[in-house]
Write a structure and sequence with these properties.
This protein is an alpha/beta fold and about 750 residues long. Helices cover about 25% and strands about 20% of the residues. The protein has 18 helices and 30 strands. Strands 1-6-5-4-2-3 form a six-stranded mixed β-sheet, sandwiched between helices. A hairpin with a 5-residue loop joins β20 and β21 (about 410). The radius of gyration is 26 Å and the shape is globular. The structure holds beta-D-glucopyranose (BGC). The site of beta-D-glucopyranose (BGC) has 9 residues, from loops.
Amino acid sequence: MKIVRLAFGCAVLAATWAFADARPGADLGAATVAGGAALSRRAATEGIVLLKNDGTLPLNEGDRVAVFDLSGKYRSGGGGSSNVKPVRIVDIPSGLADAGLQVDSQSRETAVLVVGRASAESADAADKAFGLSPKERKTLDEIKAGGFRRIAVVCNCGHAIDLGPLARDPAIGAILWAWFPGGEGGAAIGDILTGKVNPSGRLASTFAGRVEDYPSNAKWRDSLYYVPYEEDVFVGYRYFETIPGAKEKVVYPFGHGLSYTSFSLEVLENLEVLDQLEIKVKVENTGKVAGKRSVLCYTSQKGGAAEHPSIELRAFAKTRLLQPGESEELMLSFEKRDLAYFDDEGTSGHPGAWVLDKGEYTVLVGGSVRDVKKVASFKMEKEVVLSTPGFKLQTDRLARRLRADGSYSETPVVYQGVTGKLKKNGFQDKAVETPTVTLFDVADGRATLDELLDQMTLQELLHLCYGHEKQDKAATGSIGALEKFGISAAQTCDGPAGVRRELPATYFPCAALLACAFDTALVEAIGERIGAEAAEADFDILLAPGLCIHRHPLCGRNFEYFSEDPVVSGRCAASYVRGVQNQGVGATIKHFAANNRETGRRVELNIISERAFREIYLRGFERAIKESAPWAVMSSYNGSNGFNSSVSHGLVTGILREEWGFEGVVMTDWHTSVPMWREIAAGNDVKMPDEHEMTLRANEGLSAAVKAVVVRDVLSVVQIRQSARRVCELVMKTRRFAREKVDFDKRRNAAGH
Ligand code: BGC
């Protein structure tokens, strides 16, 4: 037996981008523009999914195509935090022309139909957006009657739609799912349609035929304020593959994706090494053209004490470009503890514990959840308790939860409230004019952070706990900004698809498309590029990546999140964070946690079992935190189980900090509606956005309110100081601080200190 330990997420680093000194407000240089465009295009080609192909594709160079854009507009990305002012946009007709096709509206050779759906934060898509509109159906019928030799459909959508009619229609030869493919998306679509790039994307979420087929839909619009998660852990394919009768509702399953070539998979080795399982798979290109192949590894479990989804993804990997006849060995690995469930019902006799259930475990390898082969199995004779963190997120309001047989059971819970430690500590009553200690001294080891904080008034400590001015109108505000103490204003900017600022930046494909590439090295390379552009534009902290789960197909932010699966989401997010932070820019994973509906996002509270919360909605965050140590986390507007996330002590302190060891800053989402003192008491350090927005609350109400609560012992100065300290630590990591310190040191040396 070979003893090896492999960590998940062994992403390959892309080239490091070298930039000259930061140039605030400067245009991107020509090399940056070219490099960004090439990467954006490559990423789009890797994540676009070929869903159907009867031989219609690939087209030949020189073929004539008539493009029908039913939505009338190419959509590079979604609205809100993912909005980027693009360096350039290559729409679909230009992209097809670029790929060597002749775009000719009179031709009756090949029709390319574009079906588009917009999507943006703060609203969800309407139910009717899920199906084809009457206008789209009419155009489709006209095209079908128009005597075309071939019809291909390109879906340029920010959310899932009903693909059933297109999938079943023999007149439609091919369907490409292109999400929002970024600024170079048209070119990438041209590459795929012509076979310049062989498609290798796979769906990272399940596509069902009707909105009602998704279990989350049952109570999705019942109330503005409460959303009960009655489907429990049965989200996405975990529902469709487990619950009797649900399989038939799927049009395209999780993991589905076609290629222009064929591959064979051969399992060379299964190793159980300590607590890790490793599966070595040989992938060979058995077809006629070069291509890449991703391999997905799942487990299924039978005979346990608890109920489990019938199949769950554990690992994935992707080959390089393989020429016909060429092969590559991939290693898929996961740890046994990844198989654990959170026992919130006491089934194992250990309520509040992570438990490895007893029973028979099967390891399956392949592509989609429906296209797998059993490669190994093992038996656990009895349950193993891995850890007992206890309850931190329980609800007593979830009336019922779904069981694996499709029935519902009532939810027994023992509610345990959480209390914080309330202790007082000092602060200066009067502002010190010239502090004897600055953050520069702390950085040099001449003083401690406590000595720095000791010099501050309560108002100054609180200054560190809300946002301040922004350097660019399109940016999002700064953190820190207490010059007297040498605390720089660390500048933040959105966002997930590229740097959002007044000047152009590279527009990358949305996260949902990146996930379909099943290639963490690619996601890391994109993180690096965005981080480099953020650094070049003199930003310190990027407000990305987004990391919530595709629970409902019409959530307005699904495009900005990776997948319905926590392993895909967590690994992609960790890679993105590593890439950004390689460039000396901090990443902020958001929106912590379970932000799954945009309607009423500031007030909406989920009602969710602690098991589903931890296994589905938090697992990706946990992985990303542990594997990539982001500088910051953004709490979500919405909340769960009675608390908005920013005031949930159980979530922000109990789980994020105490259980997972997160040491960075937690900031709110922009303009939360709950009082700041409650946020600090929960462990949420900074209320965003900028000082201008906060002035009223800060100067008039906030400090008086905080003083009052401090006196009443509801919020302790210890907690305020702890948040202020984390902000100082964050600022010290930035390039801006390093730059300002150089100036400070020069002044200090000149003064002969
Ligand atoms: C969004 C965040 C974003 C922030 C700043 C909020 O509306 O929810 O994701 O980072 O605005 O633009």
